[in-house]
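Dear support,

Our group has been running a series of protein-ligand predictions, and this particular one with phosphoenolpyruvate is the one our PI (initials K.S.) wants archived with full inputs and outputs. We had some confusion internally about which version of the output was final, so please treat the block below as the authoritative record. The input we submitted was:
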Amino acid sequence: MVVVMRPGATEADVQHVVCLVREFGMKEHLIYGTDRVVIACIGDKRMVDKQAIENAPMVEKIVPILAPYKLASVEVKSTKTIVEIGPQRLPIGGQRIAVIAGPCAVEGRDQLLRIAQAVAKAGCVGLRGGAFKPRTSPYTFQGLGEEALKILAEARQLTGLAIVTEVTGLEHLDICLEYADVLQIGARNMQHYPLLEAVGRSGRPVLLKRGMSAQLDEFLLAAEYIISAGNPNVILCERGIRTFEQYVRNTLALAIVPELAVRTHLPVIVDPSHGTGHAHLVPAMCRAAVAAGADGLIIECHFDPEHAASDGAQCIRPDVLAAEMQVLRRIAQAIGRQL
Ligand code: PEP
Ligand code: MN
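Confirmed final output from the archive:
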């Protein structure tokens, strides 16, 4: 349930309600809006004496939250969340559409610094690059680990781009926190609940990918784990789901973009690379995603896709990225946004 305070309620009024909420065995989350404070109460509401809270000073009303996810729901927070990333605190979720690009994996210093400069020049806000790779086969390239993280940090220094990298397990969280601006939780880990709680406790922006067989509610409940652990900085990412179709690696379910917009305040970005598996399909899906209302894109990009250590088939070249940014800019304009 949500306790909506009247405009002008003081911090003492809010804290009084917080005490009541705790007395009834629930946990509170405070959301400060422009003219009022709402207190989201999470826990077993059967134990709560609603009347007691309703009668507290400056309480306007109590509203039940119907969705299974609570803190991620528009029922709790109707204004859109803007997540600021990287050294320049660039916003994801506002008017401006944000593009993150880079290779699937960091393969070496020269490779990464060169692509980082191209990504920055194209007008992107973030640089992606896996240090720990969740590969289907244990015999394929697994990532350079900490060496890759150090190279990513050097690329940030050089370009100012925000560094996005995947945390594949709890044992890598501390080292990723030393270097990364955004912690990516991969599709395979969307339901790794202890990891979601741990990145939640860290407070660092999280890019949460949709599990390849996850339904919308499961996706938002995964986000709920992160927010309820204390971290509101969650960016959702649609990256395609597993279907019977085989001409694509995954089926990019773009209808989830406008559907999420009516259910959650969290920013939503789209990954057309894993969402298709083929470089020639990526530009069209970038355009469709922006037109559908996505707050951003995460795109795999490589100077030499044919020799990429992972996911070369879906990597676009930097000149394609740069040209695509121009097209996306016009689409953004047409729908009243910028890029
Ligand atoms: C990736 O971004 O390189 C990746 C492994 O993505 P996903 O978790 O969506 O498969
Ligand atoms: Mn990849």
